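ARCHIVE CARD
Drawer: 12
Card no.: 0347
Subject: one protein chain, sequence and derived structure
Cross-reference: see card 0346
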Amino acid sequence: MSETVVVVPVLNAEPLVGAFRRLHTEDGAEGMPAHVTLLAPFVDSGRLDVGALRAEIARFPPFELTLGRLDRFDGPQEVLYAVPDPAEPFVHMTEALSARFGVLPYEGAHDEIVPHLTIAISADAVVLERIEAELAPSLPLAAVVGCVDVWTHAPGRWTLTDRLPLT
């Protein structure tokens, strides 16, 4: 059985941030495009009930978002990310999926749900500053969210397994 994740793809961000993600994030290097994570890990692929997930996701309407600014999470490895606005739809979807499937956001490691599109992870602040300087002039970036994706992980590779529409 394999690990799964539930994410909101932001495909029009991929031309802007994809190269940085492939170089500076593990999931980007393993094939995962630009996205905002809802739940990771989600459930083992053998326990995935796509019908129940589809029904839960279908309760949410499509919406527009703007990636208008960059921010960072501190730590030994800083995380450079784009901030989606509005954040509330992501929080509501995460809370609903968490309640329905009994999966804690971030495995319970964080008290708050902070929607974000990870661009790069590095212990080298200079690397992140360079990336930030290169990306900032291209913001804001608008997108329409119309679906949620389920990805499955096998060693060295993420694979899209389901695309579920918001309705």
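Annotation on reverse: The two ends are 30 Å apart (CA to CA). The chain has one domain: 3-165.
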